[in-house]
Amino acid sequence: MNTALAILTHALRMLIHAPSTTIRVLMPALVLVIGCSLAIALLAPDMIIPKQTINAPAEPPTLQAALFFLMFGAVGLIGYALMAILWHRHVLLNGSDRIEDLRPDRAIFLGYIWRAILVGLAQMVAAIPIAILIGILGGSMMYANPTGPMATLLGLVASVIFVWVAMRLSVVLPAAALGEPMRLGESWTTTKPISAALWGVALLLSGLNICVYMISDTLLPVTGGFAILAHTIIYVVEGLVFISVLTTLYGHLVEGRSLGQ
C-alpha cells in the first residue's frame, strides 16, 4: 500500500502544487469540455432530462436535440483527449508550459485518439466477465436493493477491477502524447513490476470516486445549468486525477523517475 499511496500522492501533488500553472496549461481543453457541456444544457436539455407533462410520460428528445448532443458530445470528448495530452506533455517534457512545446501535431493527436479507442475497446471486453461475475455473486440482491450496502460493495469491487485493468493498459496514452508509440501488450508488461501496488491505487481511486458521487448526488441539484456545470467540473477533476496517475506511471516505469520527486 505504501507504493500505491506514493503513486497517488505524486499524481495529486503534480496537479495542486502550482494550481495557476495547471489551469493555464489545461485552459484550451477546459474551455472545450465545459463549453460543450453548457451548450448541451442550453441547446439539448431534452437529452438529459426528457420533457414530461402532468398527464403524459416523458416525451422522447427531438432529432435536433439529438444532433446537438452528438455534435457537442464529440467535441467535448476531443477536448477531454486534448486535456490529457496537454497534461502528459507538460509533466513529461520537464514541466514545460510553453504553448509551442505542448501543442500536439496532427500525428500525435490522432495517434492518441486511436490508442484511447483501443484501450476503451479492451476495457469493454474486460468488463464482460466482470459484469457476469458481479451478476452471479449478487445480481438478485442488487436488484432488490440497488442502493444498499451489498450493491455498493459489489460496485466498488467491479470498479477496482475495471480501474486496475485500465491502468495496466493505459500507459500507452502518455507514450502516445510524446510521440513514442507503445502497444497495449507493452503497457501490460511495463506495469507488471508494480501490478500488486496498482490494486491499491485502484481501490483508492474507486473509493474516492464513490465518495465524491455520493456527496455530489446529495448536495447538487439534479437539473439546471448549474447542475450540468458542477457535474462537468467534478468529472474533469476525476479525469485529471486518473490522467495524472498515468503520467506518474509512465515517468516512473519508463523514464525511471522517482515517486518522491
Radius of gyration: 20 Å
Sum up the overall morphology in one term.
globular
Low-confidence stretches: 52-56
C-alpha termini separation: 18 Å
* Percent range of helical residues: over 70%
Give the mean pLDDT.
Answer: 84
The ordered string of helix (H) and strand (E) elements is: HHHHHHHHHH
Could you give a short account of the major beta sheet? none
Which structural category do the helix and sheet elements fall into?
mainly alpha
**Binned strand content:** under 5%
Q: How many helices?
A: 10
- The strand count comes to 0
Explain what this protein looks like in three dimensions.
The chain is an all-alpha fold and 261 residues long. Helices cover 77% and strands 0% of the residues. It has ten helices and no strands. The chain has helices at residues 2-16, 19-43, 63-92, 99-102, 106-144, 149-169, 172-177, 184-190, 195-219, 225-253. The two termini are 18 Å apart.
Brief digest:
By secondary structure, the protein is mainly α. It is built from 10 helices and no strands.
Task: Break the fold down into its secondary structure elements and pairings.
Blueprint: H1 2-16, H2 19-43, H3 63-92, H4 99-102, H5 106-144, H6 149-169, H7 172-177, H8 184-190, H9 195-219, H10 225-253
Helix pairs in contact: 1-9, 1-10, 2-3, 2-10, 3-5, 3-10, 5-6, 6-9, 9-10
